[in-house]
Structure formats: C-alpha cells, structure tokens
Amino acid sequence: MSILCRRRNETQKLHPESIVTGVSLRSFSFKELKKATCGFKEKLGSGAFATVYKGLVVSNGEKHKAVKRLDMVRDCEKEFKAELNAIGPRPSWHRRMQIALEVGKGLVYLHEECSTQIIHCDITPHNILLDDTLTARISDFGLAKLLRSDQSRSSTGIRGTKGYVAPEWFRGMAINTKVDVYSFSVVLLEIICCSITLSQDALVEGDEEVMEVMERLEKQIMIAIWCIQEEHSLRPTVKRVVQMMEGTVHVSAPLILPC
Q1: Whether 122 is catalytic
Q2: 75, 122, 180, 207: which one is catalytic?
Q3: What share of the chain is helix, strand, coil (3-state, %, to 5)?
C-alpha cells in the first residue's frame, strides 16, 4: 500500500479528500509521514515528479510501507489527483461484475475463437489491465501455450502464479483450457471481494450495494466454486461460465465444495 504526500511544512496536514472528491483515504500530517520514513531516509525509487520512500505506518491493522513525496508542486497537481483517484475509489458492484464478464469473454476468444487455441496459463489480477473506460483487457502472454488444431491438451512444465495455479499442474497431467478456468475462478472471487482476503466479512462489510444484491452475489460465488473444482473435468468451459454470468444458463449448486 502506498501513501502520497505533497511537500509541505511539518505542521500542515494533507487532506486528500479536499482535492479529490469521492475518495475515502486517511489524511496524514507531514510530521507523521516524516516519522514513518525516519526523515525520508530510505529511497525506494523516483519518477518524473516524485520520490518513493520506505516507511511504516500502522493504521487500522494495516501496515503501509511506501510513501510517495512530490518533489515539484508546479506542474504535478493534475498527476497527484489522478493517482489518488486511481488508488482510492472501490468500483461499484455492477462495474466489478462487468470487469469479470469482460475477462471471461476475453478467455472465450482465446479458447474458442482464435485460429490457434491459446491457453493463457497466468490469469491473475496483475495481468488484467483496465483502460480509461475501465474496460478489462487480458495482458502478458509470456507463459501462454498455443495448441495445434489436432491438440486438445498439452504436456508442459508448471506455469503460472502461486495461488492461481490449477492442481493438475502439480500432478504432471496434460493440461487444457480448464487451467485458465481455475485461475479465473480465483480472480472472480477477488473481484467479488475487492480483496484477496476471501472471508464472509470481506464479501459484504461496508458494501451496502452488495447487501442489496445478495442473490446475485451468491450466484457469482457458485459460479466461482464450479470453476475452482479440483477435478478439471467438473469445471465448466469458460464459454459456459460466461453464459452463467449473463444469466442465459442456470447456475446449479456445485457438486463439490472446496475445503
């Protein structure tokens, strides 16, 4: 987690909410940030208009470890506002589900609509980019596996990111597109939660919008559980996943619940 601060004297407080509307971020004084970074002692990196320092601020049980200090005030107000907007607001439930659906449709294209079938092999939040309209784009095909027209599966070494890798990778089995379905299920749960902490409280705490659509929430969770089945043959294709998300296919209770 990073904290941004503009260059000010030690007694003046930074009030992000006063410069960016609709952003719920805690305000820290310059003095607090100076203490957290031991006087801006350890530099982690720098950019065109700011320097990032290592720091430690304990707030509500969270440890924030990076503080960005703007070096020039002259032309950086616009950039400062843009970055606060980028790291602060939580997307609405509708927008989160739209992002998840767009990722699913992207996988349908890779799995079924390309002239050469592509298994991405590394579907994670880090490899999902959002453009200016928050439209999702799948990126980073460095680990992707291309299947010949006469292939439905492939034998290859383990690829992917810890926590998103399907169990068949570890069994030395030939893999198919269902490995992407498994990874997508983890991403879907994280999009639902807006967090990598997949607890019941994380699903609904402070999210009145989700509380109002609990039936839809439960449906998305069931879809994710179908996709995360340990036995790959029980997982639906990503095309069927998209149909379930769109409501054109009924979502039944998963056969096996994860432990």
Answers
A1: yes
A2: 122
A3: 40, 15, 45
